[in-house]
Design a protein that fits this description.
Keywords: Oxidoreductase
Strand order of the largest sheet: 16-15-14-13-7-12-11-8-19
Protein name: Putative dehydrogenase
CATH topology of the largest domain: Dihydrodipicolinate Reductase, domain 2
Largest sheet: 9 strands, mixed
Organism: Aminobacter aganoensis
Number of helices: 10
Distance between the termini: 11 Å
CATH architecture of the largest domain: 2-Layer Sandwich
GO molecular function: nucleotide binding; oxidoreductase activity
Pfam families: GFO_IDH_MocA, GFO_IDH_MocA_C3
Number of strands: 19
Order of helices and strands: EHEHEHEHEHEHEHEEEEEEEEEEEHHEH
Structural class: alpha/beta
Strand content: 15-25%
Number of domains: 2
CATH class of the largest domain: Alpha Beta
Helix content: 25-40%
Low-confidence stretches: none
């Protein structure tokens, strides 16, 4: 397929570099322009990646742009995506998709009227390790999944991020910032969530920045940073999800799924690769060999060694789905359901009551090795 959809990026911060670097390895998309409210940032990124810099208004009016990638801060995701939809553009947003489910449902209505598609990160669940877990579950080797655990624990961003304020304000916190990776992966593995419950707290009302250039400055914390949640899935499985930025060290695995016939110990869903450990019945736990999946291959240097990074895969899959007339995997329905779950957890933390989900979705189609190779520009 020779045709490509033109892509324009709004928001030229740190994450934009990842999209621009990885886009050329995928079929169906061509990065053409970028925009930012700070034109100096737009010009800098444009020069770095040989694109053209536009104002936001200019980009939305550009005839050669089919898809807008929304990489703005979460607080304006809804407004920017709405502008793009009203301009007749398809939209692919960074996570979290929106900060309130009413906004996500409004974007769906607008997109349906305009006849455009919406997609959203995360796309890490398309990684080889997570798709191998999906293969094991779908093949029945674990039996029915009955329960599981998720843990995302650290001591927050004030130690390394130059401007960590927004992480500790409403719209931030570990649920909205990191929860999308975990919840999207669980939904693609076992299906949608039925209801949630949670306890939430703010152990430290202030944080001291230890990273430059603002080292020593104290910032207020106005959103929960420790959340202990329960999730009940439509399929009957029950999970705990513990998310905290008040933990110095944890020995918990990122994700574990417990089935009637076996257990999977999964790697961090924030990444595409990593070791998948598996046991059947009482047999010893073993690390499975890397699956013959292109998104398992380490392709990027990381402080802890080489890692697999294929961010932009979800965008490419959406573009090809538009061209091929099929559903895309990082769908609007999935994104809205993930937001529903996360905001439901936060609401439960405030009210101390169970919260039923307002939405549901189908599991995204699995991405096996052959389908993944079909997304790559190098595919024959």
């Amino acid at each position: 397929m020779a045709r490509k959809l033109g892509v324009g990026v709004i928001g030229c911060g740190n994450i934009s570099k990842t999209y621009f670097q990885h886009a050329p390895q995928f079929r169906g998309i061509e990065m053409r322009a970028c925009a930012d409210i700070n034109m100096d940032a737009a010009r800098s990124r444009a020069k770095e990646f040989k694109l053209r810099a536009e104002t936001v208004e200019g980009l939305l009016a550009s005839a050669d742009i089919d898809i807008i990638v929304n990489l703005t801060i979460p607080a304006v995701h809804y407004e920017v995506s709405k502008l793009a939809i009203e301009a007749g553009k398809h939209v692919y947003s960074e996570k979290p998709f929106v900060l309130a489910i009413k906004d996500g449902l409004d974007l769906k209505r607008r997109a349906d009227r305009k006849g455009v598609r919406i997609g959203s990160a995360p796309d890490t669940f398309l990684g080889g390790s997570h798709q191998l877990a999906r293969h094991l579950i779908d093949s029945g080797k674990l039996g029915k999944i009955t329960s599981g655990t998720c843990h995302v624990m650290s001591h927050g961003m004030e130690q390394w991020h130059p401007n960590p304020d927004f992480f500790f304000q409403p719209g931030g916190g570990p649920i909205l910032d990191l929860g999308p990776y975990y919840i999207a992966n669980l939904v693609q593995l076992i299906g949608p969530v039925k209801r949630v419950a949670a306890l939430a707290s703010i152990p430290a009302k202030e944080r001291t920045i230890s990273s430059k250039p603002r080292a020593g400055e104290r910032i207020p914390v106005t959103t929960p940073t420790t959340i202990l949640a329960l999730m009940e899935f439509d399929a009957g499985a029950v999970f705990t999800f513990n998310a905290s930025w008040d933990v110095w060290h944890s020995g918990h695995a990122p994700m574990e799924l417990y089935g009637e016939a076996g257990t999977i110990h999964m790697p961090d869903p924030n990444f595409f690769g990593g070791d998948l450990r598996y046991t059947r019945g009482e047999k010893p736990v073993k690390t499975l060999p890397r699956w013959d999946h292109p998104f398992s291959i380490a392709n990027e240097k990381h402080p802890e060694g080489m890692m697999a990074n294929y961010r932009t895969a979800g965008l490419a899959d959406m573009a090809l789905a538009i061209l091929q007339g099929r559903p895309h995997r990082c769908s609007l329905e999935l994104a809205n359901h993930v937001i529903d779950v996360m905001t439901g957890i936060l609401k439960s933390g405030e009210t101390r009551k169970f919260v039923d989900m307002q939405t549901t979705c189908e599991r995204p189609e699995r991405l096996g090795p052959a389908a993944a190779r079909g997304l790559l520009a190098s595919a024959k």
